[in-house]
Amino acid sequence: MVNDLKDRTKKFAHRCVKLTEFLPNTYLGSHIKGQLIRCSTSVAANYRATCVAQSKPSFIAKISIVIEEADESAFWLEFLADEKLFEFEKVEPLLKEAKELTAIFMASRKTASNK
Q1: What is the pTM of this model?
Q2: What's the CA gap between 39 and 74, in Å, rounded?
Q3: Residue/partner pairs of 103-108 with CB below 8 Å, 24 or more apart
Q4: Residue 69 to residue 102: CA distance in whole angstroms
Q5: Mind listing the domains of the chain with CATH numbers?
Q6: pLDDT tens digits, 76-97
Q7: CA distances for 108 relative to 4, 12, 18, 59, 62, angstroms
């Protein structure tokens, strides 16, 4: 499961980065590009850090960052669709993945917190 999520979060980051290559070369396009690249890659990088956490409090703190970054990724994906920079149908699979990852990591934090 851990390696599956490592792969899944990295693929999510790659897909978001690829999507940003097609954003318009405008101030808004550049802003969203930077934000989406930052938060989507942070999901993958911080999940890896979570996997090597040395204590339960450290795990909970790190997984909380992953949750925030996955949710922020969802925000930017929604925003670029709202701004009609992409058709919603093109953004929807990535948005679904961002929401699923958020839910998975929230459940993981809840489990860790209850133990």
Answers
A1: 0.94
A2: 10
A3: 104/5, 105/47, 105/63, 105/66, 105/67, 105/70, 106/67, 108/63
A4: 9
A5: 2-114 (1.20.1440.60)
A6: 999 999 999 999 999 999 999 9
A7: 14, 19, 28, 10, 11
Tokens of 27: 């101030």
pLDDT for the residue numbered 91 = 96
Residue 85, helix vs strand vs coil: coil
Q: Which helix (H) or strand (E) holds 20?
A: helix 2-20
CA angle in degrees (0–180, nearest 5) for 14-23-77? 60
- Which residue in this structure is represented by tokens 């097609």? 22
Burial tier of 107 (Cβ tally within 10 Å: 0-12, 13-18, 19+): exposed
For residue 54, give the H/E element and its range.
none
Token digits for 57? 């409090």
What's the half-sphere exposure (Cβ side, CA atoms, 13 Å) at 27?
0
